[in-house]
Amino acid sequence: MAYTEEKAFELVKSAYERERLGHAFLITGEALAGGERLASKMIELINGVEDATAGLELFGDAPDPEPQSIDELEGDLVRVVRPEMKSRRISVKQMRELEKAMYQASEKDKWKVGVVLEADRMGVEAENAFLKTLEEPPDRCLLLLITSSPDRLLPTILSRCVQLPLITHAKREEYDGEIELLEVLGKIGKVGFGSVGRALTLKAAFSKVLERRKSEIAKANDAAQKEEITTYKQTTEGDWLKQRENYYKALTESEYLLERAQFLDVLITWLGDVVRQKCGVTELDYPKYASITKSVAEAESLESLLQRMESLEKLGSLLETNVSEPLALEVGFMKAFG
In which band, very low, low, confident or very high, does the pLDDT at 117 lie, cut at 50, 70 and 90? Predict the structure, then answer.
Protein backbone atom coordinates (compact mmCIF):
# COMPACT_ATOMS: atom_id res chain seq x y z
CA MET A 1 0.00 0.00 0.00
CA ALA A 2 1.42 3.38 -1.00
CA TYR A 3 1.07 6.49 1.16
CA THR A 4 1.21 10.19 0.46
CA GLU A 5 4.05 11.95 2.27
CA GLU A 6 1.61 13.53 4.71
CA LYS A 7 -0.12 10.26 5.57
CA ALA A 8 3.18 8.41 5.99
CA PHE A 9 4.35 11.07 8.45
CA GLU A 10 1.10 10.83 10.41
CA LEU A 11 1.63 7.08 10.81
CA VAL A 12 5.27 7.52 11.83
CA LYS A 13 4.35 10.25 14.32
CA SER A 14 1.66 8.06 15.87
CA ALA A 15 4.13 5.17 16.27
CA TYR A 16 6.70 7.51 17.84
CA GLU A 17 4.21 8.96 20.30
CA ARG A 18 3.26 5.41 21.35
CA GLU A 19 6.99 4.56 21.70
CA ARG A 20 6.69 1.93 18.97
CA LEU A 21 8.86 3.54 16.32
CA GLY A 22 10.89 1.08 14.29
CA HIS A 23 14.67 1.49 14.06
CA ALA A 24 14.96 1.19 10.26
CA PHE A 25 12.73 2.50 7.47
CA LEU A 26 12.94 2.01 3.72
CA ILE A 27 11.34 5.02 2.03
CA THR A 28 10.59 4.35 -1.62
CA GLY A 29 8.89 6.09 -4.53
CA GLU A 30 9.75 8.62 -7.22
CA ALA A 31 11.52 11.83 -6.25
CA LEU A 32 8.35 13.94 -6.47
CA ALA A 33 6.68 11.77 -3.82
CA GLY A 34 8.80 13.46 -1.14
CA GLY A 35 11.11 10.77 0.27
CA GLU A 36 13.84 13.15 1.45
CA ARG A 37 11.27 15.58 2.80
CA LEU A 38 9.63 12.78 4.80
CA ALA A 39 13.04 11.76 6.17
CA SER A 40 13.66 15.37 7.25
CA LYS A 41 10.32 15.48 9.05
CA MET A 42 11.10 12.23 10.85
CA ILE A 43 14.47 13.55 12.00
CA GLU A 44 12.93 16.79 13.26
CA LEU A 45 10.21 14.78 15.01
CA ILE A 46 12.58 12.68 17.12
CA ASN A 47 15.26 15.29 17.76
CA GLY A 48 13.13 18.42 17.88
CA VAL A 49 13.62 21.53 15.81
CA GLU A 50 13.53 25.23 16.55
CA ASP A 51 10.23 26.62 15.29
CA ALA A 52 10.94 29.61 13.10
CA THR A 53 7.24 30.57 13.25
CA ALA A 54 7.17 30.82 17.05
CA GLY A 55 5.40 33.99 18.13
CA LEU A 56 3.60 34.50 14.81
CA GLU A 57 0.38 33.21 16.36
CA LEU A 58 0.11 36.60 18.05
CA PHE A 59 -0.74 38.01 14.63
CA GLY A 60 -3.01 35.19 13.46
CA ASP A 61 -2.58 31.55 12.54
CA ALA A 62 1.08 30.60 12.19
CA PRO A 63 1.98 28.63 9.05
CA ASP A 64 3.34 25.11 9.40
CA PRO A 65 7.16 25.39 9.48
CA GLU A 66 8.98 24.00 6.48
CA PRO A 67 11.29 21.09 7.37
CA GLN A 68 14.98 21.61 6.90
CA SER A 69 16.63 19.75 4.05
CA ILE A 70 18.75 16.65 4.62
CA ASP A 71 21.83 18.75 3.81
CA GLU A 72 20.88 21.30 6.48
CA LEU A 73 20.27 18.60 9.08
CA GLU A 74 23.54 16.77 8.42
CA GLY A 75 25.97 17.01 11.32
CA ASP A 76 27.04 15.17 14.47
CA LEU A 77 23.61 13.66 15.03
CA VAL A 78 22.70 13.05 11.40
CA ARG A 79 25.10 11.23 9.09
CA VAL A 80 24.27 11.06 5.39
CA VAL A 81 25.67 8.57 2.89
CA ARG A 82 25.48 9.34 -0.83
CA PRO A 83 26.84 7.62 -3.95
CA GLU A 84 30.42 8.61 -4.64
CA MET A 85 30.80 11.15 -7.44
CA LYS A 86 32.95 9.17 -9.88
CA SER A 87 31.61 5.66 -9.58
CA ARG A 88 28.07 6.62 -8.48
CA ARG A 89 28.36 3.74 -6.02
CA ILE A 90 28.15 3.58 -2.22
CA SER A 91 31.27 1.87 -0.96
CA VAL A 92 31.87 -0.58 1.88
CA LYS A 93 34.08 2.07 3.48
CA GLN A 94 31.19 4.54 3.57
CA MET A 95 28.92 2.02 5.27
CA ARG A 96 31.61 1.12 7.81
CA GLU A 97 32.02 4.80 8.63
CA LEU A 98 28.24 5.16 9.03
CA GLU A 99 28.16 2.16 11.35
CA LYS A 100 30.93 3.64 13.47
CA ALA A 101 29.10 6.99 13.68
CA MET A 102 25.92 5.30 14.91
CA TYR A 103 27.80 3.86 17.90
CA GLN A 104 29.33 7.17 18.94
CA ALA A 105 27.92 8.93 22.01
CA SER A 106 25.30 11.61 21.42
CA GLU A 107 23.62 14.35 23.40
CA LYS A 108 21.18 13.28 26.09
CA ASP A 109 17.70 12.47 24.75
CA LYS A 110 18.89 12.84 21.14
CA TRP A 111 18.87 10.21 18.42
CA LYS A 112 21.69 9.25 16.10
CA VAL A 113 20.31 9.11 12.56
CA GLY A 114 21.84 7.49 9.50
CA VAL A 115 20.41 8.43 6.09
CA VAL A 116 21.35 6.47 2.98
CA LEU A 117 20.36 8.33 -0.19
CA GLU A 118 19.95 6.28 -3.38
CA ALA A 119 20.31 3.17 -1.24
CA ASP A 120 20.07 0.92 -4.30
CA ARG A 121 23.58 2.13 -5.23
CA MET A 122 25.15 0.21 -2.33
CA GLY A 123 25.84 -3.05 -4.12
CA VAL A 124 26.07 -6.46 -2.47
CA GLU A 125 29.31 -5.85 -0.55
CA ALA A 126 28.18 -2.56 0.96
CA GLU A 127 24.75 -4.00 1.79
CA ASN A 128 26.32 -6.94 3.61
CA ALA A 129 28.55 -4.53 5.51
CA PHE A 130 25.41 -2.70 6.63
CA LEU A 131 23.48 -5.77 7.78
CA LYS A 132 24.97 -5.92 11.28
CA THR A 133 23.85 -2.38 12.02
CA LEU A 134 20.36 -3.15 10.72
CA GLU A 135 20.16 -6.31 12.81
CA GLU A 136 21.59 -4.94 16.06
CA PRO A 137 21.28 -1.15 16.08
CA PRO A 138 22.42 0.78 19.15
CA ASP A 139 19.86 2.48 21.39
CA ARG A 140 18.22 5.65 20.08
CA CYS A 141 19.39 4.99 16.55
CA LEU A 142 17.24 5.56 13.44
CA LEU A 143 18.24 4.35 9.99
CA LEU A 144 16.53 5.78 6.91
CA LEU A 145 17.13 4.26 3.48
CA ILE A 146 15.74 6.21 0.52
CA THR A 147 15.49 4.84 -3.01
CA SER A 148 13.27 4.79 -6.08
CA SER A 149 14.49 1.27 -6.96
CA PRO A 150 13.96 -0.99 -3.94
CA ASP A 151 13.97 -4.06 -6.19
CA ARG A 152 17.75 -3.67 -6.49
CA LEU A 153 18.27 -4.21 -2.77
CA LEU A 154 18.99 -7.60 -1.21
CA PRO A 155 16.00 -9.39 0.37
CA THR A 156 17.89 -9.36 3.67
CA ILE A 157 17.93 -5.56 3.58
CA LEU A 158 14.26 -5.31 2.66
CA SER A 159 13.20 -7.69 5.41
CA ARG A 160 14.92 -5.65 8.13
CA CYS A 161 13.19 -2.36 7.35
CA VAL A 162 9.68 -1.04 7.81
CA GLN A 163 8.76 -0.10 4.25
CA LEU A 164 7.09 3.22 3.46
CA PRO A 165 6.25 3.33 -0.26
CA LEU A 166 5.27 6.88 -1.22
CA ILE A 167 3.05 8.19 -3.98
CA THR A 168 2.22 11.70 -5.15
CA HIS A 169 -1.26 13.13 -4.72
CA ALA A 170 -1.60 13.28 -8.51
CA LYS A 171 -0.98 9.56 -8.89
CA ARG A 172 -2.92 8.50 -5.82
CA GLU A 173 -5.09 5.53 -6.79
CA GLU A 174 -7.41 3.28 -4.85
CA TYR A 175 -5.62 0.22 -3.52
CA ASP A 176 -6.69 -3.29 -2.76
CA GLY A 177 -9.22 -3.26 0.06
CA GLU A 178 -9.93 0.46 -0.22
CA ILE A 179 -12.24 -0.13 -3.20
CA GLU A 180 -14.19 -2.74 -1.22
CA LEU A 181 -14.72 -0.33 1.67
CA LEU A 182 -15.73 2.52 -0.61
CA GLU A 183 -18.25 0.34 -2.42
CA VAL A 184 -19.84 -0.81 0.85
CA LEU A 185 -19.92 2.78 2.10
CA GLY A 186 -21.60 3.81 -1.13
CA LYS A 187 -24.27 1.10 -0.96
CA ILE A 188 -25.11 1.83 2.67
CA GLY A 189 -24.86 5.58 2.15
CA LYS A 190 -27.54 5.42 -0.53
CA VAL A 191 -30.10 4.01 1.90
CA GLY A 192 -28.83 5.95 4.90
CA PHE A 193 -26.89 5.36 8.11
CA GLY A 194 -28.42 5.05 11.56
CA SER A 195 -29.10 1.31 11.49
CA VAL A 196 -27.54 -1.38 13.67
CA GLY A 197 -27.56 -3.83 10.78
CA ARG A 198 -25.86 -1.42 8.39
CA ALA A 199 -23.24 -0.50 10.98
CA LEU A 200 -22.42 -4.16 11.52
CA THR A 201 -22.30 -4.74 7.75
CA LEU A 202 -19.67 -2.01 7.47
CA LYS A 203 -17.77 -3.45 10.40
CA ALA A 204 -17.80 -6.91 8.79
CA ALA A 205 -16.43 -5.50 5.50
CA PHE A 206 -13.71 -3.63 7.40
CA SER A 207 -12.72 -6.72 9.39
CA LYS A 208 -12.62 -8.84 6.22
CA VAL A 209 -10.19 -6.43 4.55
CA LEU A 210 -8.01 -6.32 7.67
CA GLU A 211 -7.88 -10.09 8.01
CA ARG A 212 -6.87 -10.56 4.38
CA ARG A 213 -4.12 -7.94 4.56
CA LYS A 214 -2.80 -9.37 7.84
CA SER A 215 -2.61 -12.81 6.23
CA GLU A 216 -0.77 -11.40 3.20
CA ILE A 217 1.72 -9.52 5.38
CA ALA A 218 2.38 -12.60 7.54
CA LYS A 219 2.83 -14.78 4.46
CA ALA A 220 5.42 -12.41 2.95
CA ASN A 221 7.38 -12.14 6.19
CA ASP A 222 7.24 -15.91 6.77
CA ALA A 223 8.75 -16.42 3.33
CA ALA A 224 11.54 -13.95 4.11
CA GLN A 225 12.25 -15.67 7.44
CA LYS A 226 12.41 -19.11 5.82
CA GLU A 227 14.86 -17.77 3.27
CA GLU A 228 17.09 -16.51 6.08
CA ILE A 229 16.93 -19.85 7.87
CA THR A 230 17.93 -21.69 4.69
CA THR A 231 20.81 -19.27 4.07
CA TYR A 232 22.22 -18.87 7.57
CA LYS A 233 21.27 -21.87 9.71
CA GLN A 234 24.64 -23.55 9.13
CA THR A 235 26.67 -20.43 9.85
CA THR A 236 25.02 -18.94 12.93
CA GLU A 237 25.42 -19.70 16.60
CA GLY A 238 23.35 -19.28 19.74
CA ASP A 239 19.83 -17.90 19.61
CA TRP A 240 20.23 -15.76 16.48
CA LEU A 241 17.50 -17.57 14.55
CA LYS A 242 15.15 -17.22 17.53
CA GLN A 243 15.87 -13.50 17.59
CA ARG A 244 15.05 -13.31 13.89
CA GLU A 245 11.77 -15.12 14.53
CA ASN A 246 10.86 -12.51 17.15
CA TYR A 247 11.94 -9.77 14.77
CA TYR A 248 9.62 -10.98 12.02
CA LYS A 249 6.71 -11.27 14.46
CA ALA A 250 7.25 -7.65 15.49
CA LEU A 251 7.64 -6.56 11.86
CA THR A 252 4.37 -8.27 10.88
CA GLU A 253 2.55 -6.57 13.75
CA SER A 254 4.04 -3.17 12.89
CA GLU A 255 3.10 -3.41 9.21
CA TYR A 256 -0.40 -4.59 10.10
CA LEU A 257 -0.97 -1.65 12.45
CA LEU A 258 0.08 0.76 9.71
CA GLU A 259 -2.40 -0.81 7.31
CA ARG A 260 -5.20 -0.80 9.88
CA ALA A 261 -4.70 2.90 10.49
CA GLN A 262 -4.70 3.53 6.74
CA PHE A 263 -7.98 1.69 6.18
CA LEU A 264 -9.61 3.54 9.07
CA ASP A 265 -8.44 6.75 7.44
CA VAL A 266 -10.32 5.70 4.28
CA LEU A 267 -13.60 5.85 6.22
CA ILE A 268 -12.75 9.19 7.80
CA THR A 269 -11.68 10.66 4.46
CA TRP A 270 -14.88 9.49 2.76
CA LEU A 271 -16.96 11.13 5.49
CA GLY A 272 -14.78 14.20 5.05
CA ASP A 273 -15.92 14.34 1.43
CA VAL A 274 -19.54 14.20 2.64
CA VAL A 275 -18.86 17.15 4.96
CA ARG A 276 -17.24 19.07 2.09
CA GLN A 277 -20.29 18.43 -0.06
CA LYS A 278 -22.49 19.63 2.79
CA CYS A 279 -20.48 22.85 2.97
CA GLY A 280 -20.40 23.37 -0.80
CA VAL A 281 -16.70 22.53 -1.28
CA THR A 282 -16.06 21.01 -4.72
CA GLU A 283 -12.55 19.59 -4.27
CA LEU A 284 -12.86 16.02 -2.97
CA ASP A 285 -10.48 13.20 -2.05
CA TYR A 286 -12.74 10.68 -3.81
CA PRO A 287 -14.24 12.55 -6.78
CA LYS A 288 -15.41 9.27 -8.38
CA TYR A 289 -17.92 8.92 -5.55
CA ALA A 290 -19.13 12.52 -5.65
CA SER A 291 -22.73 11.65 -6.50
CA ILE A 292 -22.99 9.27 -3.55
CA THR A 293 -21.32 11.56 -1.03
CA LYS A 294 -23.56 14.38 -2.22
CA SER A 295 -26.71 12.33 -1.62
CA VAL A 296 -25.47 11.42 1.88
CA ALA A 297 -24.73 15.10 2.54
CA GLU A 298 -28.29 16.01 1.61
CA ALA A 299 -29.73 13.36 3.94
CA GLU A 300 -27.51 14.00 6.99
CA SER A 301 -27.13 17.05 9.19
CA LEU A 302 -23.69 18.59 9.55
CA GLU A 303 -23.78 17.86 13.28
CA SER A 304 -24.39 14.13 12.76
CA LEU A 305 -21.64 13.90 10.13
CA LEU A 306 -19.11 15.53 12.44
CA GLN A 307 -20.16 13.20 15.25
CA ARG A 308 -19.63 10.18 12.99
CA MET A 309 -16.14 11.38 12.06
CA GLU A 310 -15.33 12.05 15.72
CA SER A 311 -16.44 8.51 16.63
CA LEU A 312 -14.06 7.03 14.04
CA GLU A 313 -11.20 9.20 15.25
CA LYS A 314 -11.85 8.03 18.82
CA LEU A 315 -11.88 4.45 17.54
CA GLY A 316 -8.45 5.02 16.01
CA SER A 317 -7.11 6.28 19.33
CA LEU A 318 -8.69 3.37 21.19
CA LEU A 319 -7.11 0.83 18.83
CA GLU A 320 -3.69 2.19 19.78
CA THR A 321 -4.20 0.83 23.30
CA ASN A 322 -4.31 -2.80 24.42
CA VAL A 323 -8.07 -3.03 23.88
CA SER A 324 -9.57 -6.08 22.17
CA GLU A 325 -9.64 -5.23 18.47
CA PRO A 326 -12.92 -7.06 17.58
CA LEU A 327 -14.75 -5.48 20.51
CA ALA A 328 -13.37 -2.01 19.80
CA LEU A 329 -14.37 -2.27 16.13
CA GLU A 330 -17.90 -3.40 16.94
CA VAL A 331 -18.49 -0.63 19.47
CA GLY A 332 -16.76 1.97 17.31
CA PHE A 333 -18.74 1.16 14.16
CA MET A 334 -21.99 1.14 16.13
CA LYS A 335 -21.26 4.64 17.43
CA ALA A 336 -20.10 5.92 14.05
CA PHE A 337 -22.76 4.42 11.79
CA GLY A 338 -25.50 3.02 14.04
Answer: very high
